[in-house]
């Protein structure tokens, strides 16, 4: 069992992550009527370049990439995933977006087997199966909940899974700061170019409240990943993942309170199936690794 200070730190870091992820979604929803999605993402990427670059400069950390081709491939896919996720946030109930995004670990499991040749175990099969069953419950094919935007968000989860597999490969040679810096630097011109090619027609004039929401997005977009990474550093995945699941009821309550979005019991059932498969797989992986952690003769 982890000492209380570590458990308390995990809870505090996860509280920051939950608030940051929720703030990111709400900020996108608030800014979108006054600014195109590509312009929103370009602003976020520009802020990321400035902030991460400043941190690296202060800490005197090198940012030169060793595997630029992999950086480019990773960020082309991640750029598409970011746009698809943001598009879903503007059209779907926020809780639906978050529930579908939670299928990412199931896609990672499947892609790791296909791309990285990792072993396919019973628990990994169960995680993928429960994940897809959860998606069917959330979307309920043939019911009004199934919209084209839902499929776009599901596509973003696949793209985020591909990004995660590429990130796993990059971390063997690159620092976290380098990965974050090049992520924002590569996606900045992509968003600027796409914004010029596909100009948005805002429904509202850009006002002070939109500027505030945009500032929140730029900050929360970084603090969400910082807090989540810090939580994983202080606690095991089997502890962090169930806390991360609280994102769904939290964003559901915020969506209900701010936008009058319904609290759909089918959504919570589907989300429980998705996360249940993830937690089951994490527990099985922890049991498999436990014997290796025990010294011989202990």
From TrEMBL:
Record's bilayer topology term: Multi-pass membrane protein
Cellular component per GO, a single term: membrane
Membrane-spanning ranges: 37-58, 70-88, 94-116, 125-143, 149-167, 179-198, 210-228, 240-259, 265-283
Entry keyword Membrane: yes
Keyword set includes Electron transport: no
Pfam families noted in UniProt: EamA
Coarse class of the protein's main subcellular location: membrane
Gene3D superfamilies registered for this protein in UniProt: 1.10.3730.20
Cellular localisation: Membrane
Family matches, as InterPro entries: EamA_dom, EmrE-like
Annotated ranges, domain EamA: 11-139, 150-281
Keyword line: Membrane, Transmembrane, Transmembrane helix
Similarity comment: family membership: Belongs to the drug/metabolite transporter (DMT) superfamily. 10 TMS drug/metabolite exporter (DME) (TC 2.A.7.3) family.
The protein's name: Permease
Organism the protein comes from: Methylobacterium platani
Taxonomic placement: Bacteria, Pseudomonadati, Pseudomonadota, Alphaproteobacteria, Hyphomicrobiales
